[in-house]
Design brief:
This protein has about 100 residues and is mostly helical. The chain has helices at about 5-30, 60-75, and strands at about 40, 45. A two-stranded antiparallel ribbon has the order 1-2. Strand 1 and strand 2 form a beta hairpin.
């Protein structure tokens, strides 16, 4: 297996594993959410935690839009510093972008 084939293989395997892990997380959360303490198993300890997100007022959303507009202006005027990093872009066979 050459490096390109191996990369594609690993990428697909990770995608499948992530999907399976998300399904397992949901099932485990349902099972342990009402426990008063962690669930200790031979594989490790499972517990739940709350993640916080925030919904802001329209005023904050307006300010965010203003900031984005200012950022675009700085980019266009050359004030903002452009940082570039080379990264790998991969398309599965049959999913290449159309030219």
């Amino acid at each position: 297996m050459n490096q390109y084939e191996r990369y594609a293989f690993i990428r697909e395997k990770i995608r499948i594993l992530k999907e399976e892990m998300e399904e397992l997380e949901t099932r485990i959360i349902i099972r342990i959410k009402d426990l008063t303490g962690p669930m200790k198993t031979q594989y490790g300890t499972f517990t739940t935690q709350k993640r916080v997100s925030w919904k802001y007022t329209e005023n904050i959303d307006r300010i965010k839009k203003e900031v984005l507009a200012l950022q675009k202006k700085e980019q266009k005027e050359g004030i903002a510093e452009k940082l570039e990093k080379l990264s790998l872009k991969f398309y599965e066979i049959g999913k290449e972008p159309k030219k």
